[in-house]
Design goal:
Number of helices: 2
Oligomer: single chain
Strand content: 35-45%
Shape: globular
CATH architecture of one domain: Clam
Structural class: mainly beta
CATH class of one domain: Mainly Beta
CATH topology of one domain: outer membrane lipoprotein receptor (LolB), chain A
Distance between the termini: 84 Å
Number of strands: 13
Amino acid sequence: MMLKVLPLVAILTSPAWGQANAPAYPQYTPGPSYSTGTTPTAPANIPMAPVVHAPDGGTRQTVISIAIPMLTGSPFTAMVETEWVKILSDGSTATTKNRRTVARDSSGRVFEERYFLTPNGDVEPRLQALQYRDPYRHEYTNCMVQQHTCYVSPMMQPARTSAPKTLRQPMNPNVKDESLGEKIEDGLTLLGTREITMLATGSIGNTRPEPIVKEFWYSPVLGVNIVTKRFDPRTGSQNFLVNHLSQSEPDPKLFEPPSGFRIVRMQSQAQSTETTP
Protein backbone atom coordinates (compact mmCIF):
# COMPACT_ATOMS: atom_id res chain seq x y z
CA MET A 1 0.00 0.00 0.00
CA MET A 2 1.37 3.41 -0.94
CA LEU A 3 1.23 6.27 1.51
CA LYS A 4 0.26 9.69 0.24
CA VAL A 5 2.58 12.30 1.73
CA LEU A 6 0.98 15.71 2.01
CA PRO A 7 2.93 18.94 2.28
CA LEU A 8 3.26 20.22 5.83
CA VAL A 9 1.14 23.29 5.08
CA ALA A 10 -1.66 21.10 3.71
CA ILE A 11 -1.64 18.91 6.82
CA LEU A 12 -1.71 21.82 9.26
CA THR A 13 -4.58 23.55 7.49
CA SER A 14 -6.78 20.51 6.78
CA PRO A 15 -10.21 20.41 8.53
CA ALA A 16 -9.59 16.91 9.91
CA TRP A 17 -6.38 17.95 11.61
CA GLY A 18 -8.02 21.04 13.06
CA GLN A 19 -10.89 19.04 14.60
CA ALA A 20 -8.67 16.33 16.07
CA ASN A 21 -6.02 18.68 17.37
CA ALA A 22 -7.99 21.76 18.39
CA PRO A 23 -5.67 24.06 20.38
CA ALA A 24 -6.67 25.46 23.75
CA TYR A 25 -6.53 29.05 22.49
CA PRO A 26 -8.97 30.55 19.97
CA GLN A 27 -8.54 29.66 16.33
CA TYR A 28 -6.93 32.21 14.05
CA THR A 29 -6.29 32.40 10.36
CA PRO A 30 -2.63 32.08 9.37
CA GLY A 31 -1.23 35.11 7.58
CA PRO A 32 0.43 35.14 4.19
CA SER A 33 3.14 32.61 3.44
CA TYR A 34 6.83 33.31 3.91
CA SER A 35 7.19 33.76 0.17
CA THR A 36 5.42 37.11 0.45
CA GLY A 37 7.95 38.41 2.96
CA THR A 38 5.54 38.41 5.92
CA THR A 39 4.96 35.89 8.71
CA PRO A 40 1.84 34.71 10.54
CA THR A 41 1.19 36.24 13.95
CA ALA A 42 -0.07 34.44 17.05
CA PRO A 43 -3.12 35.64 19.03
CA ALA A 44 -2.47 38.58 21.33
CA ASN A 45 -3.20 36.54 24.48
CA ILE A 46 -0.48 33.98 23.77
CA PRO A 47 2.98 35.06 25.06
CA MET A 48 5.72 34.98 22.43
CA ALA A 49 8.96 33.19 23.20
CA PRO A 50 12.01 35.49 23.32
CA VAL A 51 14.19 35.53 20.23
CA VAL A 52 17.70 34.47 21.22
CA HIS A 53 20.68 33.84 18.95
CA ALA A 54 24.40 34.56 18.73
CA PRO A 55 25.63 37.61 16.79
CA ASP A 56 25.49 37.16 13.03
CA GLY A 57 28.37 38.05 10.75
CA GLY A 58 26.03 39.05 7.92
CA THR A 59 26.86 39.26 4.23
CA ARG A 60 28.91 41.96 2.54
CA GLN A 61 29.42 42.71 -1.14
CA THR A 62 31.72 45.39 -2.46
CA VAL A 63 32.32 47.08 -5.79
CA ILE A 64 35.92 47.62 -6.87
CA SER A 65 35.93 50.70 -9.06
CA ILE A 66 38.27 51.64 -11.90
CA ALA A 67 42.01 51.90 -11.27
CA ILE A 68 43.75 55.26 -11.68
CA PRO A 69 47.54 54.86 -11.88
CA MET A 70 49.94 57.48 -10.53
CA LEU A 71 51.14 58.59 -13.96
CA THR A 72 53.28 61.68 -14.55
CA GLY A 73 52.70 64.15 -17.35
CA SER A 74 49.08 63.17 -17.93
CA PRO A 75 46.84 65.36 -15.76
CA PHE A 76 43.06 65.20 -15.82
CA THR A 77 39.89 65.83 -13.83
CA ALA A 78 36.73 63.78 -14.42
CA MET A 79 33.54 62.32 -13.01
CA VAL A 80 33.12 58.56 -12.57
CA GLU A 81 29.55 57.29 -12.73
CA THR A 82 28.88 53.85 -11.25
CA GLU A 83 25.80 51.66 -11.62
CA TRP A 84 25.37 48.27 -9.92
CA VAL A 85 22.42 46.10 -10.98
CA LYS A 86 21.93 43.04 -8.77
CA ILE A 87 19.66 40.19 -9.81
CA LEU A 88 17.33 39.10 -6.99
CA SER A 89 16.05 35.60 -6.31
CA ASP A 90 12.71 36.20 -8.07
CA GLY A 91 14.40 37.52 -11.21
CA SER A 92 13.77 41.19 -10.46
CA THR A 93 16.63 43.66 -10.08
CA ALA A 94 17.94 46.16 -7.53
CA THR A 95 19.93 49.12 -8.85
CA THR A 96 22.25 51.40 -6.89
CA LYS A 97 24.38 54.27 -8.24
CA ASN A 98 26.87 56.97 -7.39
CA ARG A 99 29.01 59.58 -9.09
CA ARG A 100 32.29 61.00 -7.86
CA THR A 101 35.14 63.32 -8.77
CA VAL A 102 38.62 61.98 -9.55
CA ALA A 103 41.76 63.88 -10.51
CA ARG A 104 45.46 63.42 -11.22
CA ASP A 105 48.08 66.16 -11.57
CA SER A 106 51.22 66.24 -13.72
CA SER A 107 53.37 64.94 -10.87
CA GLY A 108 51.24 61.80 -10.60
CA ARG A 109 49.32 62.65 -7.42
CA VAL A 110 45.81 61.13 -7.41
CA PHE A 111 42.65 62.35 -5.67
CA GLU A 112 39.42 60.34 -5.46
CA GLU A 113 36.06 60.92 -3.80
CA ARG A 114 34.23 57.87 -2.47
CA TYR A 115 30.43 57.90 -2.21
CA PHE A 116 27.96 55.35 -0.91
CA LEU A 117 26.01 53.41 -3.53
CA THR A 118 22.31 54.21 -3.09
CA PRO A 119 19.17 53.93 -5.26
CA ASN A 120 19.36 57.66 -6.06
CA GLY A 121 23.10 58.09 -5.58
CA ASP A 122 23.47 59.65 -9.02
CA VAL A 123 21.40 62.70 -8.00
CA GLU A 124 21.75 62.76 -4.18
CA PRO A 125 25.19 61.28 -3.44
CA ARG A 126 26.32 60.58 0.15
CA LEU A 127 30.03 61.28 0.64
CA GLN A 128 31.94 58.55 2.47
CA ALA A 129 35.66 59.31 2.10
CA LEU A 130 38.31 61.46 0.42
CA GLN A 131 41.43 59.61 -0.71
CA TYR A 132 44.86 60.91 -1.72
CA ARG A 133 47.92 59.12 -3.13
CA ASP A 134 51.21 61.00 -3.22
CA PRO A 135 54.11 59.10 -4.84
CA TYR A 136 56.71 61.67 -3.73
CA ARG A 137 55.73 61.87 -0.08
CA HIS A 138 55.14 58.10 -0.26
CA GLU A 139 51.81 58.51 1.52
CA TYR A 140 48.28 57.22 1.09
CA THR A 141 45.72 59.32 2.97
CA ASN A 142 42.18 58.12 3.61
CA CYS A 143 39.91 60.77 5.14
CA MET A 144 36.68 59.39 6.64
CA VAL A 145 34.14 62.19 6.42
CA GLN A 146 31.79 61.13 9.22
CA GLN A 147 34.70 60.63 11.61
CA HIS A 148 36.45 63.87 10.58
CA THR A 149 39.65 61.82 10.64
CA CYS A 150 42.40 61.27 8.05
CA TYR A 151 44.49 58.08 8.27
CA VAL A 152 47.93 58.43 6.67
CA SER A 153 49.74 55.22 5.69
CA PRO A 154 53.17 54.63 4.13
CA MET A 155 53.05 53.89 0.40
CA MET A 156 56.15 52.86 -1.51
CA GLN A 157 54.64 52.57 -4.99
CA PRO A 158 56.41 55.03 -7.34
CA ALA A 159 54.80 57.13 -10.04
CA ARG A 160 54.85 55.80 -13.60
CA THR A 161 56.29 57.83 -16.43
CA SER A 162 54.25 56.08 -19.14
CA ALA A 163 51.08 54.02 -19.34
CA PRO A 164 51.02 50.58 -20.95
CA LYS A 165 49.63 50.66 -24.48
CA THR A 166 47.57 47.52 -23.90
CA LEU A 167 46.52 45.58 -20.83
CA ARG A 168 46.65 41.81 -21.23
CA GLN A 169 45.96 39.22 -18.58
CA PRO A 170 48.28 36.19 -18.30
CA MET A 171 47.36 33.34 -20.61
CA ASN A 172 44.42 31.45 -19.16
CA PRO A 173 42.62 28.67 -21.05
CA ASN A 174 39.34 29.67 -19.40
CA VAL A 175 39.58 33.28 -20.63
CA LYS A 176 38.67 34.30 -24.16
CA ASP A 177 39.36 37.88 -25.20
CA GLU A 178 38.66 39.73 -28.39
CA SER A 179 39.48 43.16 -29.75
CA LEU A 180 36.59 45.56 -30.26
CA GLY A 181 38.72 47.93 -32.34
CA GLU A 182 39.26 51.63 -31.75
CA LYS A 183 36.99 54.63 -31.36
CA ILE A 184 37.43 58.29 -30.52
CA GLU A 185 35.47 59.87 -27.66
CA ASP A 186 36.01 63.49 -26.59
CA GLY A 187 39.28 63.60 -28.50
CA LEU A 188 40.65 60.45 -26.84
CA THR A 189 41.51 57.29 -28.77
CA LEU A 190 40.01 54.32 -26.94
CA LEU A 191 40.94 50.65 -27.42
CA GLY A 192 38.11 48.17 -26.90
CA THR A 193 38.47 44.67 -25.45
CA ARG A 194 35.96 42.05 -24.35
CA GLU A 195 36.94 39.26 -21.96
CA ILE A 196 34.82 36.19 -21.31
CA THR A 197 35.80 33.92 -18.43
CA MET A 198 33.92 30.64 -18.20
CA LEU A 199 33.36 29.29 -14.72
CA ALA A 200 33.52 25.54 -15.14
CA THR A 201 30.81 23.39 -13.55
CA GLY A 202 31.58 22.91 -9.86
CA SER A 203 34.32 25.56 -9.67
CA ILE A 204 32.21 27.67 -7.28
CA GLY A 205 29.59 25.01 -6.52
CA ASN A 206 27.69 25.89 -9.72
CA THR A 207 25.71 23.14 -11.45
CA ARG A 208 26.46 24.37 -14.99
CA PRO A 209 29.08 26.52 -16.74
CA GLU A 210 28.61 30.26 -16.12
CA PRO A 211 30.20 33.15 -18.06
CA ILE A 212 31.78 36.29 -16.60
CA VAL A 213 31.83 39.01 -19.26
CA LYS A 214 33.89 42.19 -19.10
CA GLU A 215 34.16 44.98 -21.66
CA PHE A 216 36.74 47.77 -21.53
CA TRP A 217 37.40 50.93 -23.53
CA TYR A 218 40.92 51.95 -22.52
CA SER A 219 42.76 55.25 -23.05
CA PRO A 220 46.52 54.68 -23.54
CA VAL A 221 47.10 58.42 -23.00
CA LEU A 222 45.49 58.47 -19.54
CA GLY A 223 46.16 54.84 -18.61
CA VAL A 224 42.52 54.55 -17.51
CA ASN A 225 39.52 52.49 -18.62
CA ILE A 226 37.06 55.17 -19.73
CA VAL A 227 34.23 52.63 -20.03
CA THR A 228 34.03 49.41 -18.01
CA LYS A 229 31.15 46.93 -18.17
CA ARG A 230 31.13 43.79 -16.05
CA PHE A 231 28.61 40.98 -15.80
CA ASP A 232 29.08 38.25 -13.21
CA PRO A 233 26.24 35.80 -12.40
CA ARG A 234 27.26 35.98 -8.73
CA THR A 235 27.02 39.77 -8.38
CA GLY A 236 25.06 41.08 -11.39
CA SER A 237 26.11 43.94 -13.66
CA GLN A 238 28.55 46.73 -12.77
CA ASN A 239 29.04 49.65 -15.15
CA PHE A 240 31.56 52.49 -14.86
CA LEU A 241 31.74 55.57 -17.08
CA VAL A 242 34.40 58.29 -16.92
CA ASN A 243 32.90 61.52 -18.28
CA HIS A 244 33.07 65.33 -17.95
CA LEU A 245 36.78 64.86 -18.56
CA SER A 246 39.25 67.77 -18.69
CA GLN A 247 42.95 67.28 -19.42
CA SER A 248 43.90 70.64 -17.93
CA GLU A 249 46.02 70.79 -14.79
CA PRO A 250 43.69 70.31 -11.78
CA ASP A 251 43.38 72.80 -8.94
CA PRO A 252 46.25 72.00 -6.49
CA LYS A 253 43.81 72.35 -3.59
CA LEU A 254 42.15 69.09 -4.71
CA PHE A 255 45.23 67.21 -3.47
CA GLU A 256 45.20 68.71 0.02
CA PRO A 257 43.26 66.88 2.78
CA PRO A 258 40.48 68.98 4.33
CA SER A 259 41.48 71.34 7.11
CA GLY A 260 40.11 70.67 10.58
CA PHE A 261 40.31 66.88 10.28
CA ARG A 262 42.18 64.87 12.90
CA ILE A 263 45.36 63.29 11.44
CA VAL A 264 46.36 59.76 12.45
CA ARG A 265 49.66 58.50 11.04
CA MET A 266 49.70 54.73 10.70
CA GLN A 267 53.28 53.56 11.33
CA SER A 268 52.37 49.88 11.42
CA GLN A 269 49.42 47.63 12.17
CA ALA A 270 50.17 47.94 15.89
CA GLN A 271 51.34 51.56 16.12
CA SER A 272 49.93 54.95 15.19
CA THR A 273 50.56 58.55 16.07
CA GLU A 274 47.82 61.15 16.31
CA THR A 275 48.07 64.81 15.40
CA THR A 276 45.38 67.27 16.44
CA PRO A 277 44.69 69.89 13.74
